[in-house]
Amino acid sequence: MTAKPKQKRMMNIDGLDYNTRREKLKLMAYGRDIQQMVDRCVALPTKAERLKCAHTIIDVMKRVVPSQMDNKERIPALWYHLALMSDFKLDIDYPVEIVHEDKMAIKPGKIAYTDRRGMNVKHYGRLLMTMFKHLKSMTAGKERDALAMTTAKQMHRCLTSWGMGTADKERVASDMARFTDGVIQLDTDSLHFDYETKNGTAYNAMSRGHLQADYQNKRKKRKKK
To answer: Nearest-CA neighbor of 184 among 212, 145, 213, 156?
Structure first.
């Protein structure tokens, strides 16, 4: 004989109200008591009584759910939550603009994505590619030279970060001339980067200098002893 599955016993006691039998809350953060207050407010006969009750509910909502937001930003949000909990059935003169349910259902338009076709140097990114175009259109002078040097430093950071082969000065100067159609010709002797490469590994040249100075100071102290 097969055993019969045990049936769950449902408690059915008069006078007890279970959450499983209640209507689902619109906004659970405010609790069922405030939801019942909103339902009572909707059922009031006159608009003046409903407006007075709504202001009282807003005060209670501020105390129940504290926030660090400024009142200028929070008060409109509370009124919107009140309208949402009433299913937009609360007929009062709202002190703020309320976006109704029919407007909420309207889907926003799709965002047009940029065309990334033809961009085969993703380690530089679209920002640097834009800088290359800007450098080509600039007139020769100190401003263009300063911008070219800043761009070259960022190119070197990208090469060392993404590990795109060599990241020496010749590679940066070659890529700069390539992507600016030969307009910008960098002098490798004038290039000084914060990060250098050694045996294929990038390291901070400034930090290396501090470490060497600290090591030499320690050696001097040992000799004095």
So the answer is: 145
SS3 (DSSP) at 77: helix
Helix (H) or strand (E) holding 197: strand 195-198
Pairwise CA distance, residues 46 & 42, whole Å: 10
- How far, in Å, CA of 183 to CA of 224, rounded? 57
> Counting Cβ atoms within 10 Å, is residue 157 exposed (0-12), middle (13-18) or buried (19+)?
middle
What are the backbone dihedrals phi and psi of residue 195, each rounded to the nearest 5 degrees, phi first? -115, 135
* CA dist., res. 180 & res. 47, Å (int): 69
Q: What is the 3-state secondary structure (H, E, C) of 137-193?
A: HCCCCHHHHHHHHHHHHHHHHHHHHHCCCCCCHHHHHHHHHHHCCCCCCCCHHHCCC
User: CB count, 10 Å around CB of 155?
Assistant: 25
Residues 6 or more apart whose Cβ sits within 8 Å of residue 193? 153, 156, 169, 205
Please write the tens of the pLDDT for every residue from 57-91.
999 988 888 877 777 788 888 898 898 888 888 88
Counting residues of the chain whose pLDDT is more than 90, the rounded percentage is 7
Tokens of 22: 């209640």
Is there a contact between 211 and 204 (Cβ–Cβ < 8 Å)? no
